[in-house]
Write a structure and sequence with these properties.
alpha+beta; five-stranded mixed sheet; four-stranded antiparallel sheet; 13 helices
């Protein structure tokens, strides 16, 4: 996003939100996979060794934290009409009672293909087809365009009814496959796409901290096993990601225009977030499922019409903070179970002293792999464990000197005092009165 210092993206509506709201420069998800991240945000609970993890099935609130007063249920209790469109939870059937009406989804799946040869590849392969598509079609030929148009109708109805509305709009893109109308690809000519400067394993990185791009490998046009991604394909994937961002930006614009047209803009709090980051060849990784900055750092912008916008903050914040933030901004009581901190004070005082650190994890017992990480103002520290909780490897990056995380400092004798401090911070947990995150 341009708001985060990436030049050349065509995202006028995301830029508009950044001008009207507060941009959180350092926001982090708690688990760089969509299912756990979304369950954590909507419940206000952090993942643990046994909650919101990947183990043969995607987690959800009903399966992992039954009985939790979710974010939508809180607003529903206090007289809001609460509606969900598209991808909010990973499983669209999760927490069905948390909404006033059934969750609306596009009549087409998120991996819809419109080019005949791509449709044939999907049919032959099953769930997965090619990793990208650029069809010369209108926006609503793909699911996100349909989601946006349904969201506009819900906004217009809310203006007619005059009822308080909590509207959750879950756009799929920029999720794989990178399918977007051709005109959005045209914004990013192939010759304009540069590859990352660090398409290599970080120096000293343990193998357990890396992966072979397992999600990307599922697509029919991607080399299998541990084969490298060719440079021409890498550029196309980066183009597809950017095209998907611009496509989603246009759909967000429809919602913002509807708020303007109906007169609801001055009564509406908007919170834009992404469930996790995404590697595009950096650190020799593609996709998510890591404990690097590129997978854990997420976009987060909050617009409150009562508060002047155009601000940004370097405060360390987390997606688990979204639930208490929206509750406070709406004047609702905060449930006792919440494990995040409301970011509302930062909207009025972006430079206020804030959290010392943020926490994330990646847990896959089916791969005998779990990692826990803490990030403070300067360092990211991670510990990778086996299924029994025995610490196998450590990772330490100095983000001031090495923002791309190219060199693991964990083996350097001079880094040991920092490692000891970060180890204590990680095992102390995110709040002093709560037990440690790490087993």
């Amino acid at each position: 996003m341009n708001a985060y210092g990436v030049d050349g993206l065509v995202t006028p509506n995301l830029d508009r939100l950044a001008r009207e709201g507060t941009v959180f420069n350092r926001a982090y998800c708690q688990f760089a996979v969509c299912g756990p991240s979304r369950a954590s945000l909507m419940s206000g609970l952090r993942p643990t060794q046994t909650r919101f993890i990947i183990d043969r099935a995607q987690p959800g609130v009903e399966s992992d934290a039954p009985g939790t007063l979710t974010l939508s249920r809180l607003f529903k209790q206090h007289g809001y009409r609460v509606e969900a469109l598209g991808k909010i939870y990973h499983d669209l059937r999760d927490d069905l009672e948390g909404w006033t009406a059934p969750v609306w989804s596009s009549p087409h799946p998120h991996n819809r293909y419109l080019v005949p040869e791509n449709q044939a590849a999907l049919e032959a392969h099953g769930r997965y087809g090619p990793s990208f598509e650029a069809a010369d079609v209108p926006d609503d030929a793909y699911p996100d365009g349909q989601i946006a148009r349904e969201a506009v109708s819900r906004i217009e109805l809310a203006a007619e009814l005059g009822e308080p509305l909590f509207l959750a709009v879950g756009f799929w893109r920029p999720h794989l496959p990178f399918n977007a109308p051709q005109r959005y690809w045209d914004y990013y000519p192939e010759e304009s796409v540069a590859l990352p400067d660090n398409m290599f394993d970080p120096e000293g990185i343990p193998g357990i901290a890396m992966h072979n791009h397992p999600e990307l490998r599922l697509y029919t046009d991607i080399p299998k096993g541990n084969a490298p991604i060719p440079d021409d394909l890498a550029r196309t994937l980066i183009r597809g990601y950017r095209a998907s961002v611009s496509y989603t930006d246009a759909q967000i614009g429809l919602l913002l225009d509807a708020l303007d047209r109906t007169g609801l803009k001055d009564q509406t709090i908007i919170l834009l977030w992404g469930d996790h980051g995404w590697h595009l060849g950096d650190n020799n990784l593609w996709g998510k499922e890591s404990l690097f900055e590129h997978a854990l750092r997420v976009p987060l912008i909050v617009v409150d019409p009562r508060i002047p916008g155009g601000h940004r903050t370097d405060a360390l914040v987390e997606l688990v903070d979204v639930y208490p933030t929206l509750a406070e901004l709406a004047g609702l009581p905060l449930p006792d179970h919440l494990e995040g901190t409301s970011m509302a004070p930062l909207l009025r005082a972006p430079d206020a002293p804030w959290k010392e650190a943020v926490f994330s994890c990646f847990i896959r017992p089916d791969r005998n792999k779990s990692g826990w990480t803490v990030r403070d103002d300067r360092y990211r520290y991670a510990e990778w464990n086996d299924a029994q909780g025995d610490r196998l490897q450590r990772v330490l990056f100095d983000l001031h000197r090495d923002p791309l995380e190219n060199r693991n400092l964990a083996g350097d004798p001079e880094s040991q005092p920092v490692i000891e401090r970060m180890h204590r911070l990680l095992h102390g947990g995110w709040q002093p009165h709560q037990r440690s995150l790490v087993p």
